[in-house]
Amino acid sequence: MSDARTAQIAEALTAVRDRITAASLAAGRSEPTLIVVTKTYPADDVRRLAELGVTDVGESRDQEAGAKHAATADLELRWHLIGQLQRNKANAVARYADVVHALDRPGIIDALDRGAAAAGRRILGLVQVSLDQPHVPGRGGADPDDALDLADRIAGATHLDLGGVMAVAPLGVDPAAAFDRLARVAERLRALHPDARMVSAGMSGDLEQAICAGATHLRVGSAILGMRTYAG
Ligand SMILES: *Cc1c(COP(=O)(O)O)cnc(C)c1O
């Protein structure tokens, strides 16, 4: 595909990659992996991204993600499920997701493990940590004090591997301070699980602060594909 849309995405992608390079240099850190969040955008955009060298794509909802994965199954992409996972979707997600980012309670970890077993696959799981202070139950993300228990549960699951932690900076707070809290949780987790080095943090508006705090994976949507017209 080489049309006006591809050129538009290519330009935005270059701008984001330049931001990542500049922020990594400034922070003295190695460049994180870019996950392009494709929610609300069509499978053809996933195809365009793959042609532009993107290796990792992220989606929020199972139904949309599953359809796009099926439409682009000929591509070698890593699929990240970044949204809240419902228990009744765990089996479906386990068939195509390579990484599931928002594991924040025991039941969902167990359901995903069963789904992965049924699909005959291994899935990388991240503990979603709430950076709300105080913690707001129900908004997504575990209380930082519960994160290590959840990490142990993922590490102990037969078909899951523990990747590390994930968070979304709450609106209206300094993202740098929020990501520093995440970095401290990540450090405690690595002390117990040295291979769990993933820190999934940073979106279109706060990727620089996330890189500064040690993000290894960024989840960037609108800065590359444009403003979404409905919430994904
Ligand atoms: C939509 C979404 C993103 C991407 O956000 P942008 O602001 O479009 O870059 C990242 N992470 C999560 C969890 C999301 O739901």
Please characterize this protein's 3D structure.
- It contains nine helices and eight strands.
- Strands 7-6-5-4-3-2-1-8 form an eight-stranded parallel sheet.
- The protein has 232 residues and is an alpha/beta fold.
- The protein has helices spanning 4-27, 43-51, 62-71, 90-94, 106-119, 147-156, 175-192, 207-212, 222-225, and strands spanning 33-37, 56-59, 78-81, 99-103, 123-128, 160-166, 198-200, 217-220.
Q: Quick summary of this structure?
A:
The chain is an alpha/beta fold. Helix content is about 45%, strand content about 15%.
Q: What oligomeric arrangement do these chains adopt?
A: single chain
Overall spatial form: globular
Largest sheet: 8 strands, parallel
- The amount of beta strand, in percent, is 15-25%
Kindly report how far apart the N and C termini lie. 25 Å
Write the layout of secondary structure elements.
Layout (H helix, E strand, L loop, with lengths): L3 H24 L5 E5 L5 H9 L4 E4 L2 H10 L6 E4 L8 H5 L4 E5 L2 H14 L3 E6 L18 H10 L3 E7 L8 H18 L5 E3 L6 H6 L4 E4 L1 H4 L7
Parallel strand pairs: 1-2, 1-8, 2-3, 3-4, 4-5, 5-6, 6-7
The structure holds pyridoxal-5'-phosphate.
Pyridoxal-5'-phosphate (PLP) binds next to strand 8 and helix 9.
Q: Which properties best describe this structure?
A:
232 residues; alpha/beta; eight-stranded parallel β-sheet; 9 helices; 43% helix; binds pyridoxal-5'-phosphate
